[in-house]
Amino acid sequence: MGVIRKTKAVEVLLNEFSNSTVAISAKKLIEQLGTSFNKTTIYRVLDKLEDDGVLHSFLGKEGHKWYAKCNGCTAVEHQDLHPHFQCLSCGRVDCLSVSVALPKIPNRKIEFSQLLIQGKCEECLVH
Amino acid sequence: MGVIRKTKAVEVLLNEFSNSTVAISAKKLIEQLGTSFNKTTIYRVLDKLEDDGVLHSFLGKEGHKWYAKCNGCTAVEHQDLHPHFQCLSCGRVDCLSVSVALPKIPNRKIEFSQLLIQGKCEECLVH
DNA sequence: TTTGTTAATGCAACCCAGTTGCGTTATCTT
DNA sequence: AAGATAACGCAACTGGGTTGCATTAACAAA
């Protein structure tokens, strides 16, 4: 697959993730851009950007899909094994650039892992 | 809340989790017990058993709800911070009785965390 | 710069895990 | 045995996400 054509939807969506490690839920993107683009289009563009290694996705605490910009991923392999932090006060989710020490598990082969940490972000701790 | 009456649905569901750390998805429970009990009942009983500290829940890779028996939890506080392992071949999910070393995150207060590890279980590695 | 190909889009209908409202049934209390 | 009410079944609903298909627009070739 992969993104082939530089369409307006691709451009606008890429712009949403322009320069931060903040994650955005598909739901929110549809709320924000739903008047300009059909939700089907948004879902499909996100899918493709993930296939291309431009974005990575994970599930928030409600099981809804979140996306964030990749760091060093390719279309062939996703390397975003970093944990994600979801603030329970403001809802903000971002990528943590730390590696997780997975526990040793005998007799099993680990292929993927996802760690979601929840709590209060710096902003919400202060106020 | 909490489970107050010992009904047949409660009895049967508790029996499903009787003596193992294997997790079962709500979906599968409905498939198995749906002829005997309404799905609404199953969802509600699971909810209450979780409130009571008898079961704990987490989300599988598709964002669907899984339940497993608690170990040392109370109605007041859930202590099941252990990771869960989901086999990508056979679908089996179980609780890992190891503690996870969370990464140090400055300026944030950690309240919850969930770690889902995916791969191949022992059974599926052999065959 | 026009033309042809086909990827991308919009729309409507759909899927399905989980929820809600409400009238009925069954458990527990007195 | 009788009354209170928790638990249940049913049907309708919710909402994130998907699918099929006809239309539109991006790109390549001429």
Key features of this structure:
homodimer; 127 residues; alpha+beta; six-stranded mixed sheet; globular; DNA-binding
Q: How confident is the prediction overall: mean pLDDT of chain A?
A: 88
Shape of chain A: globular
Flag low-confidence runs of chain A.
Answer: none
Number of helices of chain A: 4
Structural class computed from helices and strand pairing of chain A? alpha+beta
Q: In terms of quaternary structure, what is this? A: homodimer
The greatest interface here is:
A-B, 36 and 36 residues
Q: Describe the strand arrangement of the main beta sheet of chain A, using strand numbers.
A: 2-3-1-5-4-6
Q: How would you portray this structure in words?
A:
2 copies of one chain form a homodimer. Chain A is an alpha+beta fold. The first copy, chain A, is built from 4 helices and 6 strands. Chain A has a 6-stranded mixed beta sheet. In chain A, strand 2 and strand 3 (65-69) form a beta hairpin. The longest helix of chain A is centred in the middle third of the chain and has 13 residues, at 39-51. The radius of gyration of chain A is 16 Å and the shape is globular. The model of chain A has no long low-confidence stretch (mean pLDDT 88). Chain A binds chain B through residues 59, 61-65, 83, 85, 87-88, 96, 98-105, 107-122, 125, and chain B through 59, 61-65, 83, 85, 87-88, 96, 98-105, 107-122, 125. Strand 6 of chain A pairs antiparallel with strand 6 (109-120) of chain B. Chain A binds a DNA duplex (30 and 30 nucleotides) through residues 4-7, 9-10, 26-27, 30, 37-41, 43-45, 63-65.
